[in-house]
Amino acid sequence: MAYTITDKCVSCGTCEGECPVGAISQGDTQYNIDADACIDCGTCASVCPTEAIIA
Ligand code: SF4
Ligand code: SF4
């Protein structure tokens, strides 16, 4: 299971630069994770200030 970004995302952009495989990108209303690219490392979830990223 890939990690997922919920609507608690405030588009701060912190997670994007921390993902080792570049799976996170900015969307229209929030950031999104490419489920096929995500390797489930959990780094993004640990750096998100609003705990918007869930496993
Ligand atoms: S869990 Fe790891 S690989 Fe998946 S989106 Fe987050 S930082 Fe990237
Ligand atoms: S770190 Fe959290 S709040 Fe910031 S862009 Fe990523 S998911 Fe959104």
TrEMBL record:
<dbReference type="Pfam" id="PF13187">
    <property type="entry name" value="Fer4_9"/>
</dbReference>
<dbReference type="InterPro" id="IPR000813">
    <property type="entry name" value="7Fe_ferredoxin"/>
</dbReference>
<dbReference type="GO" id="GO:0051539">
    <property type="term" value="F:4 iron, 4 sulfur cluster binding"/>
</dbReference>
<dbReference type="InterPro" id="IPR017900">
    <property type="entry name" value="4Fe4S_Fe_S_CS"/>
</dbReference>
<keyword id="KW-0411">Iron-sulfur</keyword>
<dbReference type="GO" id="GO:0046872">
    <property type="term" value="F:metal ion binding"/>
</dbReference>
<protein>
    <recommendedName>
        <fullName>Ferredoxin</fullName>
    </recommendedName>
</protein>
<keyword id="KW-0408">Iron</keyword>
<comment type="function">
    <text>Ferredoxins are iron-sulfur proteins that transfer electrons in a wide variety of metabolic reactions.</text>
</comment>
<keyword id="KW-0004">4Fe-4S</keyword>
<dbReference type="InterPro" id="IPR017896">
    <property type="entry name" value="4Fe4S_Fe-S-bd"/>
</dbReference>
<keyword id="KW-0249">Electron transport</keyword>
<dbReference type="GO" id="GO:0009055">
    <property type="term" value="F:electron transfer activity"/>
</dbReference>
<dbReference type="InterPro" id="IPR050157">
    <property type="entry name" value="PSI_iron-sulfur_center"/>
</dbReference>
<keyword id="KW-0813">Transport</keyword>
<feature type="domain" description="4Fe-4S ferredoxin-type">
    <location>
        <begin position="29"/>
        <end position="55"/>
    </location>
</feature>
<keyword id="KW-0479">Metal-binding</keyword>
<feature type="domain" description="4Fe-4S ferredoxin-type">
    <location>
        <begin position="1"/>
        <end position="28"/>
    </location>
</feature>
